Amino acid sequence: MSGSGTRAAYGAVGGVLPKDTTEDVRTRGAGVSAQVAVLPVGSFEQHGPYLPLVTDTLVACAVARELAAAYPVHLLPPLTVSCSHEHAAWPGTVSISAVTLHAVVSDIAASLRRSGVDALIVVNGHGGNYVLGNVVQEASARGERMALFPAAEDWETARERAGVVTSLLTDMHAGEIETSILLHAHPEFVRPGHESADFIADDRRHLLTLGMSAYTESGVIGRPSLGSAEKGKELLASLTESFEPYLALLTRAAGPE
């Protein structure tokens, strides 16, 4: 499903917002059997003293930007505030309810269908957005075309390919993966301090009840000292490859039997 001419045609404002015109969308839609949109969903929450509140949004956008460069999909602007209630103890964190996030994503999908876009793939950059799985399940049960990306298996494949040392369990927040992706995609957002901020808290069984502050004072859980731009580049490359079956599944399902 990859399009060789897509990368040259695609661009984004500041590396985050799509700069398509309506004619760009019309032209791209005319060249595919089924139109697919990609929606990055991030968050606005603490990421320690060295990564910005908008980290998860930047990560989701970096992934979505690579997807839009490699495949004929419509890139949507990100949702930048989501379900970050576990981070409420830190200044700057802003959340909306799971009910609101569910409604917003569902409304976006409905609007896309009315305009002729057959399917929506949600690119989630924040692990606390559990409700997105419910959105996809419910839409699929209604016969609508929706998927959630990346899955844990996609992250694990990317971690191994990129040589990320920290496990997905340990690399929970503002760690090696997120630091690496920002060092590659948005190094201007990374402040000094990640080199000495490692903190491990693998047993987090009461996280939903107690929040992040019960497990970390800094807000960091992971090993950001191991992050690098090279790892970030490889993480994104692996995720881009992992995306193809998702796109094939939704376009095949949306087309004629």
Structure description:
- By secondary structure, the protein is an alpha/beta fold.
- It is 42% helix and 9% strand.
- The protein has ten helices and six strands.
- The protein has a four-stranded parallel sheet with strand order 4-3-5-6, with helices on both faces. It has a two-stranded antiparallel sheet with strand order 1-2.
- Strand 5, helix 5 and strand 6 form a beta-alpha-beta unit.
- Helix 6 crosses helix 9.
- The longest helix has 17 residues.
- It is globular and about 50 Å long.
- It starts with 5 loop residues before the first helix and ends with a helix.
- 48% of the residues are buried.
- The N terminus is likely disordered.
Indicate the structural class: alpha/beta
Q: What would you report as the Rg, rounded to the nearest angstrom?
A: 18 Å
- Share in β-strands: 5-15%
Shape: globular
What is the average per-residue confidence, as pLDDT, rounded to a whole number? Answer: 93
SSE succession: HEEHEHEHEHEHHHHH
- Percent of residues in helices: 40-55%
Query: Poorly predicted ranges (pLDDT <50, ≥5 residues)?
Result: 1-11
- Strand order of the main beta sheet, please? 4-3-5-6
The strand count comes to 6
Roughly how many Å apart are the termini? Answer: 18 Å
How large is the count of helical segments? Answer: 10
